[in-house]
Design brief:
The complex is a heterodimer of chains A (351) and B (76).
Chain A: H1 7-22, H2 30-43, E1 48-52, H3 54-61, H4 63-67, H5 69-72, E2 76-79, E3 92-96, H6 102-107, E4 113-117, H7 122-125, H8 136-146, E5 151-155, H9 170-174, H10 180-191, E6 198-202, H11 206-209, H12 230-242, E7 246-250, H13 255-267, E8 273-279, E9 289-295, E10 329-334, E11 341-345
Parallel strand pairs in A: 5-6, 5-7, 8-11
Antiparallel strand pairs in A: 1-3, 1-4, 2-3, 7-10, 8-9
Chain B: E1 3-7, H1 13-25, E2 32-36, H2 38-41, H3 71-75
Parallel strand pairs in B: 1-2
The chains are: A alpha/beta (351), B alpha+beta (76).
Chain lengths: 351, 76
């Protein structure tokens, strides 16, 4: 995790990207590249990198095999970065090991393959050890903890799949790539064993998060539904049950829906909220606890939540999200509203 | 939304967050929204110079108003 959050390292990568840009090999606006590149650099372990546009990738490998490339070509690690699917940053990055079969290498159309370099990032990988920085995000997290907030409900963002990732970390899956500094702050607090916010991951797209369920071993619990704004609903329920504020980390793209939901919440503060908690066995789900929250204040608009737990993570793959180019980090705190609530089942989570 | 605030630099990040929480926890309680641009969240700061705003002490929510002078008589 260290390399991911190193500013110097990121700058070094940026320099490389700048070099590529000058040679018309990579035509990306530099600002938007930053978070994506910092994530790429963590994952890049091989010595050869081919950067090409997605159409070229798909022509070369076929869109099907692009997703399952790691099974077709065992030595090929495929990275699909969500930021690369944003309109202006429409690139995929394919990483090839040196022992890639020549047949598949020649399958790449040289006209569309923009770059093949042997040591794009090797110099940066061997650069100085990561230096720690202290940023606004550290202050931000610190003051949240000091103010007594203990839980953060975070929207799940499938930014990146790590086929070779050994130790899944909830931060790398639940927080987006558009606030790397906050990730650093979380990691820093963890490192120095400071009290920190408990991250509760709230995936809002069932299709997207199914393969990730098995990765959430270290997450506290996974909240899932097919509706948007799971995190906010959960935080509201948390605030109503506990009377304490909870934090929600959202992306700016969610803000409109958030306002919409909030107006519903405020319009019907007396409506009951029902919280049901189910406990799954370890075989059913690697996360032992699942919370389903359903508010009856919006029965027709909010689909009832359903737990699915028998999905095979191997068969699915991540697909990229469209993310806003510059998305501010947002923080929402919901607080207890004067509402009645009724509890269904047994509340087993450690709220 | 009870309150919307923006963190514009690291120096007053604490104040913005605590002020928002004050709004959230004071009656009528409700959600607040605080946002920051990515560049702001990555602003480098000196840990030594972060002021102590005494988060747990001075930023409490509004307390209930006490009874007025005539209150005890009217309630009895």
């Amino acid at each position: 995790m260290k390399m991911l959050f190193d500013h110097d390292h990121r700058r070094a990568v940026e320099r490389n990207v700048e070099k590529l840009r000058k040679n018309r090999l990579l035509r990306l606006p530099p600002l938007q590249m930053v978070p994506a590149i910092s994530r790429i650099s963590l994952a890049v372990v091989a010595s050869r990198i081919i950067v090409c546009e997605p159409p070229a990738c798909e022509r070369a490998f076929g869109s099907e095999s692009l997703n399952s490339a790691s099974t077709v070509l065992p030595r090929l690690l495929l990275l699909r970065i969500s930021l690369f699917h944003a309109p202006l940053i429409n690139y995929s990055l394919i990483e090839l090991t040196s022992s890639l079969p020549t047949s598949s290498a020649s399958a790449l159309d040289p006209e569309h393959v923009k770059l093949e370099t042997t040591s794009l990032l090797s110099s940066t990988m061997s650069s100085n050890s990561p230096t720690e920085v202290f940023t606004t995000s550290n202050v931000f997290l610190d003051v949240l903890v000091k103010a007594g907030i203990t839980h953060a409900f975070v929207k799940y963002v499938p930014t990146l799949s790590f086929p070779h990732h050994q130790e899944p970390n909830p931060f790398s899956y639940s927080l987006g790539s558009d606030h790397p500094a906050l990730l650093e702050a979380f990691i820093s607090r963890q490192k120095y064993k400071l009290p920190t916010l408990k991250i509760i991951t709230c995936p809002n797209e069932v299709r997207e998060m199914i393969p990730a369920v098995s990765l959430f071993r270290s997450a506290d619990c996974v909240l899932r539904s097919s509706s948007q704004m799971v995190a906010l609903s959960c935080a509201q329920g948390y605030a109503q049950v506990c009377g304490k504020p909870a934090a929600v980390l959202v992306h700016v793209v969610s803000f409109a829906r958030l306002v919409d939901l909030n107006s519903n919440v405020e319009a019907n503060p007396e409506r009951p909220i029902r919280i049901a908690v189910h406990k799954l066995s370890q075989e059913q789900c690697t996360t032992s606890r699942l919370v389903v929250l359903r508010s009856s204040s919006m029965p027709e608009r909010r689909p009832s939540l359903k737990m699915e737990n028998s999905q095979d993570p191997e068969t699915s793959s991540f697909t990229g999200y469209r993310t806003p180019l510059i998305s501010p980090l947002s923080f929402v705190s919901t607080c207890a509203m004067s509402a009645r609530f009724e509890m269904g089942g047994t509340l087993k989570t450690s709220f | 939304m009870r309150h919307v605030g923006e963190i514009r630099n690291g120096r007053n990040a604490q104040d913005v967050v605590l002020r928002a929480l004050q709004f959230a926890e004071s009656e009528p309680k409700g959600p607040v929204y605080v946002w920051a641009q990515r560049e702001v969240t990555e602003e480098h700061l000196d840990p030594e110079k972060v002021s102590d705003v005494r988060a747990g002490e001075v930023w409490s929510p509004i307390e209930p108003i006490p009874l007025s002078k005539s209150g005890p008589y009217s309630t009895i």
